[in-house]
Design goal:
Layout lengths: L6 H17 L12 H7 L5 E4 L2 E5 L4 H8 L1
Antiparallel strand pairs: 1-2
Helix pairs in contact: 1-3
Amino acid sequence: MSREGCHLCEVAESDVARICGELGVPWETADVDSDPEWQAEYGDQVPVILIDGIEHGYWRVEEERLRAALR
């Protein structure tokens, strides 16, 4: 979950793109503000990383933890 104009989101997207690219894992970003339910759930925590729809973390990418979860 990301938000336009969010510096932390930009950093997280870059990290996720690099890590997922190295592991060959597809990923996508979604605008938290595009859905009222997402905004209510995640609006104060962006960026939020979901893996298979389950919250994995927010605000910063914990690289080793993310790599372990994606393996």
